Amino acid sequence: MSEELDAETLEFAHRMFDLARDGATTELAGYVDAGLPVNLTNEKGDTLLILAAYHAHPATVAALLDRGADHTRTNDRGQTALAAAVFRSSGDAVRALLTAGADPDHGNPSAVETAQFFDLSEMLTLLRPA
């Protein structure tokens, strides 16, 4: 059995990643509900959750988390969805990820390190409440 995917399957997968990037929450959630793996990963190790977080789509992040997306996954560069949401200063996405149990110190750089490096004091406050 061949490990290579056919062109139609690859095109479908690319569309799913585009839905995450675009924040097409309802459509993407429908595909996940119909059987699309919620932790689908692209050639760079980015999951649907990481892409939704990086593109600052908190509703999509929440929908994926509600469907079991693994917030502990890192991409090939060691980045997490939480670090991506922090980088984009998406407070709602950060809160959703933290509520789901995401670890602010996980990843390389971690969400905390990202907030510190880019001087994102509001994000750091979300990650390390007083």
TrEMBL record:
Signal peptide start and end residues: none
InterPro entries named in the record: Ankyrin_rpt, Ankyrin_rpt-contain_sf
Alphabetically ordered keywords of this record: ANK repeat, Repeat
ANK repeat residues: 44-76, 77-109
Domain of life per record: Bacteria
Pfam families (alphabetical): Ank_2
Keyword Repeat among record annotations: yes
Source species: Micromonospora maris
Designated name of the protein: Ankyrin
PROSITE patterns on file: ANK_REP_REGION, ANK_REPEAT
Keyword hit for Transport: no
